[in-house]
Automatic annotation (TrEMBL):
Catalytic activity: 5-[(5-phospho-1-deoxy-D-ribulos-1-ylimino)methylamino]-1-(5-phospho-beta-D-ribosyl)imidazole-4-carboxamide + L-glutamine = D-erythro-1-(imidazol-4-yl)glycerol 3-phosphate + 5-amino-1-(5-phospho-beta-D-ribosyl)imidazole-4-carboxamide + L-glutamate + H(+); L-glutamine + H2O = L-glutamate + NH4(+)
Gene: hisH
Protein name as annotated: Imidazole glycerol phosphate synthase subunit HisH
GO BP annotation list: L-histidine biosynthetic process
CDD domains in the record: GATase1_IGP_Synthase (cd01748)
């Protein structure tokens, strides 16, 4: 009897003008996904997984996202329990608000919290750093505690306040990192996962992390 392998999971990289979409596409393909870069509403809605990249300023990213109905896409997918992953500013805009240069902008408000300036001797935080992943993390499964990931950012979330309030539901899993001060480096919360660092630029560790996400789709 001939065995057939399962079809590759289909992942859309949302193209809204504010992300390294080609790097993300290559990294996801290496991790075993069938990848498409698009801003098409229906294709983004129907993919097994949606990746939301992000570089630049919080407010500009939000404007770009709304211009392609990305806010609707993310909200509708999550309402149906369909996986979404944010990267870098693509993670930051999932929070309630961002403050850059004294200007406050509204985020997607999937999580409470404010993205604010990172207080450290050297900013931006640019380069390799370790993280503190919680026990039982699916995102960091199979990765050593001393694995390093590539960060490029000047802003971060410094507090986490969301709890499920329901003992039957799995509590969000929050991973932390430190650069001058402690900040949120990754979140696993039901169908919504995100990283402050760039897994697509994080070598073998980043590839394993993306494989872990794809395997949950």
């Amino acid at each position: 009897m001939e065995l057939t392998s399962a079809p590759a999971k289909k992942v859309v990289v949302l193209d809204y003008g504010f992300g390294n979409v080609r790097s993300a596409e290559r990294a996801l393909a290496r991790a075993g996904a069938e990848v498409e870069i698009t801003r098409d509403y229906d294709r983004a809605m129907n993919a097994d997984g949606l990746l939301v990249p992000g570089v630049g300023a919080f407010a500009a990213c939000m404007e770009g996202l709304k211009s392609v109905r990305g806010d609707w896409i993310v909200g509708r997918r999550l309402a149906g329990g369909r996986p979404v992953m944010g990267i870098c500013v693509g993670m930051q805009i999932l929070f309630a608000r961002g403050i850059e240069h004294g200007v406050e902008a509204e985020g997607l408000d999937e999580w409470p919290g404010t993205v604010g300036p990172l207080k450290a001797d050297v900013v931006p935080h640019m380069g390799w750093n370790t993280v503190e992943a919680p026990p039982g993390s699916q995102l960091f499964a199979g990765l050593d505690a001393d694995a390093r990931y590539y960060f490029v950012h000047s802003y971060a979330v410094h507090d986490w306040s969301l709890e499920t309030g329901n003992p039957a539901m799995r509590a969000p899993m929050v991973t932390w990192a430190t650069h001058g001060e402690r900040f949120v480096a990754a979140v696993e919360n039901g169908a919504l996962w995100a990283t402050q660092f760039h897994p697509e630029k994080s070598g073998d560790a980043g590839s394993q992390l993306l494989t872990n996400w794809i395997e949950t789709l």
